[in-house]
Amino acid sequence: MTYQNIMDKNLTIKERILYFAKNQGISRTDLFNELEVAASNFKGVGLKSEIGADKIVKFLTSYQNVSPEWILTGNGSMFRDETPEATEIHPSESINAIPFVGLSVVAGFGSADFKIEATDVKAYYVVPKFKDRKIDFMIEVAGSSMYPKYNSGDVIACKIIRESQFIQWNRVHVIATKEQGLVVKRIKENGEHSIMAISDNKDYPPFAIPMDEIAGIALVVGVIRLE
Predict the structure, then answer these.
(1) What does 105-133 look like in DSSP terms, one character per residue?
(2) Are strands 194-198 and 121-126 parallel, antiparallel or unpaired?
């Protein structure tokens, strides 16, 4: 057992929550607003007191990259999955090479299967943790609309959805639209003629995307993040 593991186990759940927030650059104000708690609950004697189960659930729902086991017990890694490593290679070197494409390229695919031409690919990478997930392409996130789920600069791994019945509602997808380009959003059903695109960042209101404006959809199944 490492010193870090011992330290984590000696912390209270509240202290681990604060430690995670500091590690991720989340301000205490934003954290307390998200959990709907007063700052006094995380100071002095209050920091050593128990935290309600509803607040723990809210925290784990809001910050889905944190490990529930670590928050509750201090065991294991702070994150659900360790950040995967990526190795750039020539595509001929491995059948598991994943194309990395730019946002502008993805936005212009304009086809139901996200057709990717060799000239559109900026690089190819092998990511061991993505080996069995059938990743079709990777792109870089731009903007803060999906914070804290994804930060600007994160590289997300995407699996193309080729049949509409396989769409997993309320999960994050990449949607290529004919007019507005690419959007990375959580999606929900919105009748027969549109889907609802929802940002995790509450500063960005949800909006409907007409089905006839959608050129392609891909499910986000992994992320590579730089600290």
Answers:
(1) HHHT--STT----GGGEEEEEE-GGGTTT
(2) unpaired
For the record, the structure tokens of 168 come out as 């997993």
Nearest by Cα to 79 from 64, 61, 58: 64
Name the fold adopted by 3-73.
434 Repressor (Amino-terminal Domain) (1.10.260)
The 3-state DSSP class for residue 90 equals coil
Classify residue 164 by its DSSP letter.
Answer: G
Phi, psi of 208 (to 5 degrees): -90, 145
Tokens at residue 194, please?
């549109």
Separation between Cα atoms, residue 133 and residue 123, nearest integer Å: 19
Please write the tens of the pLDDT for every residue from 57-116. 889 888 887 888 888 888 877 777 655 566 655 554 555 688 888 654 343 333 444 666
The CATH number of 87-224 is 2.10.109.10
